[in-house]
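Our working data are protein records whose layout never changes between entries. The record below serves as our worked example for the rest of this section:
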Amino acid sequence: WRVYKRVAEEHDSEFLERYTTNLDILMFNHSGLFSTVSTSFIVMMGSNLSSDPSNTMNALLKQLMQIGLGNLTEAGSKPADPASTWSLTAVTLWIQMIAYASLSMSLLAAFRAVLGKQW
């Protein structure tokens, strides 16, 4: 039994060392870097989810200039709001959904690696 116990302990220690090394690689290199890159893309694409505020400012300034020049009929009685004509495209929505799904899966993989390492 002593021989079996020694061989089994050697095999188990090699297996655990290999397992922990693989989890470290998965956790830090793949999941961590991919999550960082995915997050930076999501932040960069965040401006596509709302209208451009400079368009609203330009429309309001144009309306103020018309009022200042005395063209009240051309300026209109309501403030200009180009944001009301803006709409989110289906392509942008799908890209955002895929980006958030990939970030979620990457963070879930890192979480599972941490749980596996602690187990």
In short: The mean pLDDT is 77. Residues 2-45 form the longest helix (44 residues).
